[in-house]
Amino acid sequence: MYGNVTYVPRSFYAHRKGMLQSHASLVAGHTGSIVHCNEIIEECFSIRTSERHLKKVIIVNEGASDAIAMLGIFRLVQYLSQDHLLGRKRTLNFIVDAGTGTTAIGLGLGALCLGLPWKVTAVMLADKIDAYREQESRLISDFKRQFHFTLDDHKLNEVDVGIVHWVDRCHERKFGNVLQGEIEACQQIAQQTGILVDPVYTLAAWEMATLLRSKNAEDDADVVMLHTGGTLGLFGLAQRYKSYFHKLKDRLPASE
């Protein structure tokens, strides 16, 4: 998956749709074709056999924010709701950090379709609540349009938005910024629990889960933080904040 990575300046990334389209055209060349993720299902049913051998370049939106990505998260909900894991009867409040919001929306869809007593709380990191609600509405609409033939539960047909509870980060900031003390907080969490979190994404969910648990000690709902990854970002942080990571390296045994 990471065999061919192209790094781009922030000025390019600010216009990511055009950037992806241009790069996809370069990869496709004159003989290939470009397909967006949300077109894959339609392509599967409409493509002619004679065209199947042609090279296809698939554009995946930022955060995989397409309806097809909901299927993977839907399967995660099915897996977690098994009796030997979380089960289908426990009242849970899932806390997840939200870049594009795709994971949170997928969790909400899965819980709704399976009739689970789960609430999804998403910590907004990259935009305001109106943008996240618009994203929620778009993904739900696209999901219903593309996969309606798999849905025998009428509940989803009655929903357009409102399956996710969007909240601000405990310490708001411009996306990508790291506040003083947050790298040390990540290091402390790792030392105490063995769980790696990063200050850009997963620390936000960790802090919110901790806050909600302390505020709602008498609440019936168990708070569950879903770790979304972000660990690769630690390599970039190690370059930006070298002094913090040098201190950590100095404390490790020589054999490590």
From TrEMBL:
SUPFAM superfamilies, alphabetized: Tryptophan synthase beta subunit-like PLP-dependent enzymes
Q: Show the InterPro entries listed in the entry.
A: ACCD_DCysDesulf (IPR027278), TrpB-like_PALP_sf (IPR036052)
Any one Gene Ontology MF annotation carried by this entry is: D-cysteine desulfhydrase activity
* Keyword GTP-binding recorded: no
The record's keywords, sorted A to Z, are: Pyridoxal phosphate
Q: Which residues form a coiled coil?
A: none
Tell me which cofactor or cofactors this protein depends on: pyridoxal 5'-phosphate
The family note in this entry says: Belongs to the ACC deaminase/D-cysteine desulfhydrase family.
User: Which PANTHER family does its entry note?
Assistant: 1-AMINOCYCLOPROPANE-1-CARBOXYLATE DEAMINASE-RELATED (PTHR43780), D-CYSTEINE DESULFHYDRASE 2, MITOCHONDRIAL (PTHR43780:SF7)
The protein here is known as D-cysteine desulfhydrase 2, mitochondrial
Taxonomic source organism: Rubroshorea leprosula
